[in-house]
Write a structure and sequence with these properties.
The chain has two domains: 325 residues, no CATH class; 130 residues, no CATH class. Helices cover 64% and strands 5% of the residues. It has 23 helices and six strands. The chain has a four-stranded mixed sheet with strand order 3-4-6-5, sandwiched between helices. α7 runs parallel beside α9 and α14 packs antiparallel against α16. It is globular and about 80 Å long.
Length: 530
């Protein structure tokens, strides 16, 4: 029996190492950080949408959301844990991140990276998966694409691999249509590479099996489009709105940053981020050159294929990183660069260029850690607690205690007091503009499809909203909240008719401990102010 177990382990060593190593590292990261932080806006949207999906509602159709895949994944974990609380949501994200790390680790093993190199890269990737945690799906998909491209390059003549690539592309699009697009771009980069190799006889079966896989992988969405009444129209409306989803921000190159003033953690982060915006495209450009050079000389080895695959996976995601080039978007779209960098480091070491190898590994690691570590939830908590002990509050979410920003906690406490004060039910609440997490916290249903007010809406859309809140008793409003300090995105400008209606029908109430930035309004005369 022991001999059989040993044979199985030796035969499957790479996959066993990848699975167990990823679960172990991601488990440690999750155990350390899950209790720190909670964002009422973006993270709140993920939590609210996952809750409503778990209860049987349809994303996009029944409420504002991204594509449905991530919410069904979170719903699965709600079912497993028996709870739709924040902890279960974070557990679902950590599991998805572990899946991305597993396949990337397995690819590094098959490419021949030494154990210590694989481990070092995996540790950095686990740190990266810690923030932004509500975007772990994006981060994990970049690693999945990295491994898919690698194994497709290794098996260009295997139709099964092209089908797997296609299925993964369809599933990625089910999680986010932009990911489907980036996966398709990576597919065409491989097609161009096949032209470069003059292996055109493989093109037709590759395209055919990839297309069949995309159809299979995207079939859940296709079935919803065909069989779910009203979903096709809602989906098309969401497609037309894609251009308004994201406001561009210039790439924060060092020469665009204000480096004056005293040296602080923020300044050091700014420098590191500016360097990263140069370093990552350089890694991709250098990696592609190495890959094509090795290919031109003959059949490339698995190491050069991993370098090329990481670059081919990362290049499409530069759009995600640099279109709205704040740290959050750069962080969620650049993980393949670290796989490429460690692959290149081993390539240089194997070619007797150890000084360059060590330099690349250290520069990549130090730069990444410098701008990533201060944004980890646990580190943010320690920094806040150190600078101002009163800036963080403990709050029970579900049956777990979390430590979150005081403003966020005060908002939740104020709404809870107002609901008690005004005898308001959890489904008689409206929270605007950026508070979907308030609904999730109270396990409440928003009164209208829109619950994250980001864009200007038509008069008819606002009238529909006004009709939907006819039974709403309590309103949480943050009139000055906006995106990128833009006046035109404040709710009085994006939802002018709704705001006018609220101020005509509802009156402000005083609630002990309510932050100055918010207003609480109620229409009932019976509601008293404390």
């Amino acid at each position: 029996m022991l001999i059989l177990i040993k044979q199985i382990f030796v035969k499957n060593r790479a996959s066993i190492e990848a699975v167990l190593g990823s679960i172990f590292l991601c488990g440690i990261g999750f155990a350390i950080q899950w209790r720190y932080g909670f964002g009422l806006a973006d993270e709140g949207l993920l939590w609210y949408a996952s809750q409503r999906t778990f209860l049987g509602e349809i994303p996009i159709l029944d409420f504002y959301s991204y594509d449905p895949g991530r919410y069904y994944w979170a719903s699965l974990f709600f079912y497993i844990t028996g709870s739709d609380d924040l902890f279960s949501l974070l557990l679902a994200g950590a599991a998805f991140g572990s899946m991305g790390l597993t396949v990337a680790w397995y690819a590094m093993s098959k490419a021949g990276l030494p154990w210590k190199t694989r481990l070092a890269c995996a540790v950095l990737l686990v740190i990266a998966l810690g923030f932004p945690r509500h975007k772990v799906y994006e981060q994990s998909l970049t690693l999945i694409l990295c491994s898919l491209v690698f194994f497709t390059l290794v098996n260009l003549d295997k139709t099964r691999q092209w089908f797997i690539f296609g299925v993964s592309t369809g599933l990625a699009a089910f999680i986010g249509r932009n990911h489907g697009f980036y996966f398709v771009v990576a597919f065409f980069l491989i097609i161009f590479y096949m032209f470069y190799l003059n292996r055109r006889t493989l093109l037709f079966p590759a395209i055919a099996w990839f297309a069949a896989g995309v159809f299979a992988g995207y079939s859940p969405m296709l079935m919803m489009l065909v069989f779910q009444q009203g979903f096709f129209s809602a989906f098309m409306d969401s497609l037309l709105a894609v251009s308004t989803w994201q406001l561009p921000i210039p790439i924060p190159f060092i020469w665009r940053s204000d480096l004056s003033g005293e040296i602080t953690v923020t300044l050091i982060q700014t420098v590191a981020l500016g360097m990263t915006c140069i370093l990552i495209p350089l890694i991709y450009a250098t990696g592609i050159c190495i890959f094509l050079s090795k290919s031109k000389r003959g059949i490339p080895n698995n190491l050069s294929l991993l370098i090329g695959a990481s670059c081919a996976a990362g290049i499409p995601y530069l759009h995600q990183a640099f279109d709205r080039a704040d740290f959050s978007h750069i962080a969620q779209a650049t993980l393949p660069a670290y796989v490429a960098a460690f692959g290149m480091s081993h390539y240089l070491s194997s070619n007797n260029k150890k000084t360059l190898s060590i330099t690349l590994a250290y520069i990549t690691s130090i730069t990444m850690l410098t701008f990533w570590i201060p944004n980890e939830p646990g580190i943010i908590y320690l920094r806040q607690k150190s600078n101002d002990p009163d800036s963080v509050s403990a709050i029970d979410i579900g049956d777990k205690k979390f430590y979150i920003d005081k403003y966020q906690a005060d908002v939740l406490f104020a709404v809870k007091r107002a609901m008690q004060q005004c005898n308001t039910g959890r489904n008689e609440l409206l929270a605007a503009p950026h508070f979907p997490g308030v609904y999730a916290f109270f396990n409440a249903k928003a009164p209208f499809w829109e619950m994250y007010y980001l864009y200007k809406r038509s008069d008819q859309f606002q009238r529909d909203h006004i009709k939907a809140i006819s039974k709403t008793k309590l309103i949480l409003l943050s009139p000055e909240a906006t995106i990128d300090d833009l006046e035109n995105l404040k709710i009085r400008n994006t939802y002018s008719l709704l705001v006018q209606y609220i101020h005509q029908k509802y009156k402000k109430i005083a609630v002990v401990g309510a932050p100055d930035k918010i207003q609480l309004l109620n229409y009932s005369e019976a509601c008293s102010s404390e």
